[in-house]
Amino acid sequence: MINKVILLGRLGKDPVVRRLDNGRVVANVTLATNDYYTKDGQRMESTEWHNLEMWDKQAETAEKYLKKGSLLYVEGKIRTDRYTDAEGQERQTRKIRVNNFQMMGSMLAPRSEDGQRSDSHGDSSSTDAGHAMDMDHEDEGLPF
Question: Where are the alpha helices (H) located in the chain, listed in sequence order?
Fold first, then answer.
């Protein structure tokens, strides 16, 4: 059996990062991918939104370098979470558990303690999650 997802898209917002009591770190990110097709001679665009989940070192890298609009290549697996909502209804949500990601573009400055980007480029070393990159170009083509 194979459960593998490969995506290339842009982040819809800055990562939401939580530090758990057991010391683990998790980041949740939304990624938009676009599909283009022709209908009645007109070029059409469809945007699909993907919920991504990153853990530990990947989550820390995401917190430090990713921001809304960043271009991201992702490899992962589809996961389905089932839960009961406040009204007692059984619900499910799907997400992509990220195994590997690569930021596309030029180097990003890491965020400072207050969440702002510094002017320096910081450490340019590779991590398990890939290289930290910047998106200093126009946001043309963004679905948001």
Answer: 57-65
